[in-house]
Amino acid sequence: MDHFKLQLPENVKKIITTLQMHGYEAYAVGGCVRDSLLDRVPGDWDITTSAMPEETKALFERTFDTGIEHGTVTVLLGKEGYEVTTYRIDGKYEDSRHPKEVTFTRNLKDDLLRRDFTINAMAYNDKDGLVDIFGGLEDLDKKCIRCVGNAMERFGEDALRILRGVRFAAQLGFDISKDTMEGMRELAPTLKNISAERIQVELVKMLVSNRPDMLKLAWELGITKIFLPEFDTMMETAQETPHHMYNVGDHTLHAMLHIRPDKVLRLTMLLHDTGKPALKTMGEDGVAHFKKHALESEKIAKTVLKHLKFDNDTLRKVTRLVKYHDYRMPATKKNVRRAMNIIGEDLFPYYMEVRRADVLAQSMYEREEKIHNLDDIEKIYNEIIELGQCVSLKNLAVNGSDLLNAGVAPGKEVGEKLKELLELVIEDPQMNTKEKLLTYLKR
Question: pTM for the complete prediction?
Fold first, then answer.
């Protein structure tokens, strides 16, 4: 055991010492130990102990039964909750995700043995220092993701670990050890037993990491085939056009790398060209065309996001951005106002980021012109915002009741007239005064 000094938060120390004072063992364990050793700030602190759940509860004033059947009690100190879990051994796994039964143990080693990767299987307290039975510290130094013990067994216990391994590699910039990778390839098909919600969480973490392109490794290992077969299809689709130097899949990976790590933006780049494979045609001249692929991509994006149980807000934003990712225009004020109206003011800045990332993942062909066009659109967009020009009904100088007062018949006609006036104002912002619009109506 190494005597590393890790900075434990006061409350974590308090919980550990309280347990120790009553004759139990207690350690900080897992991700918080890993992150501390990497000089990252842990998101939360998990504590593991030889005390049984009831014994833990007896020692603290405020506790919650969060997962007591799995041995987890949440201890409340101040406003913070800390999960304290009894050492346990998982029973047989029946369905590559749930242990049939959980057996509590008084032995730390047994508990560490059931964890996924060596870097997540270290424990620490101030008394004993770092407890590292499986070489997690060495793997941290070597930047290596390796299963605790036998990879096939670990992935057999919970197939989600296959995706988690790739996600950790992406987040930490680590490699995956050979035997762990073999286990992943072998058991990838068992990911079909894992709920869409759990897969979604891991996928998003990978996409918003610094290496979203690790998705390519997931593809090579046969992992994407199970929950994102659309990506496999893109990896098999070449783009014979001067605008591109990569196949659709590789272009997608580069596009994700060229956009900031925002969930909506990364998902948009992941899905923006999903419609290309189905719509590919070859011209006489040997050049590929993907006419109307954005609409097809929008459809596929909707299906994928629903299948992976994404929330409606994410679904709305991503599908809309996918639909308009290829919306191109000469940089004129009228065009930009119209585009803001069509795409939506809230999403227009996102649309600009998407267009840039798309261009940067293409070939150098006409790149300067494309970027120049986007710079001009951006300038105009900023002017429109500064001048507060109207691009949607909510900023139109008249509303429905103004039209009714002006004698427009109630019903459908009101909406149609408002649309007509908005068109007018998008063409000529000077027209956006109540007086001018009502005068126009009378004409």
Answer: 0.93
